[in-house]
Design goal:
The structure is a single chain. This protein has about 260 residues and is an alpha/beta fold. Helix content is about 25%, strand content about 20%. It is built from six helices and ten strands; from the N terminus they run αβαβααβββββαβββα. The strands form three sheets. Strands 3-2-1-6-5-4 form a six-stranded mixed beta sheet. A two-stranded parallel sheet has the order 7-8. It has a two-stranded antiparallel ribbon with strand order 9-10. β9 and β10 form a beta hairpin. The chain is globular and about 60 Å long. The N terminus is likely disordered.
Amino acid sequence: MKGSTHPYNTMAKSRIVFRDVIVVGAGWSGLLACKCMLEEGLTVMALEKRSDVGGLWCYTEDSDVITVMRNTKTTSSSSVTEMSDFPMPEEIGQFPKHEDVLKYLKSYCDTFHLWLHIRLDHCVTKVTKDGELWRVKCENGRQYTSKFLIVCTGSVQKPNRDLQHSLLKDFVGEIRHSSEFKTFIPEHANKRVMLIGGGETASDVVEEWYDHVSRLIWCIPRGMHFFRKFAKILPHRHPQALDKASSRVMKFIAPFTRSKPG
């Protein structure tokens, strides 16, 4: 309608782009969110601060950017890791490398035509709520407005150093956070190293460090279940990825609403 004050018209005049949904981040979760919003018939824009999609899986040597490590592979098999509507190709292997995961995510963008709805080099600096609308400002000066906002910036973008100021405040040795590592640190060769934490990055550190240090002590505060990557489940078949079966069993005996047994 001529003269209407609908947000679409208002944004056009002020050069602020309007979308039904703004997604902050174009890593794994951001891409999924973008695709799902499009399936619902909503207009969507994903804003990514880096020059490529993939989030943690977009590896860089830059120590100021938190990504997977140089030799990271998935700890879950391809059949467990993949999107339900976009199987990983067989040639990617059972436990793909990070560069293969990134190719998979880019192929996901190709298949579901997400590139038109992604803006790279758009670092979000400020988000405010104005009535029923979200207003998003980027470092490059671009501004966006939306009805809905989905934040997919990840949970590990800022190192948690709380232990350095509490439990480890009297520790006299060197303390390093895993976010600083891209590969094995030569200074740790033949040293005694304690690793605190049981997440994915801890697994990467153990795999790279244990052959090079005199002793590696792995401290996992809340416990952890360990499974072999492969097991011969059926005698007439090659060894299979064990997590495909074990994850179903764990979901049955320990649903996410309860703590894990043991």
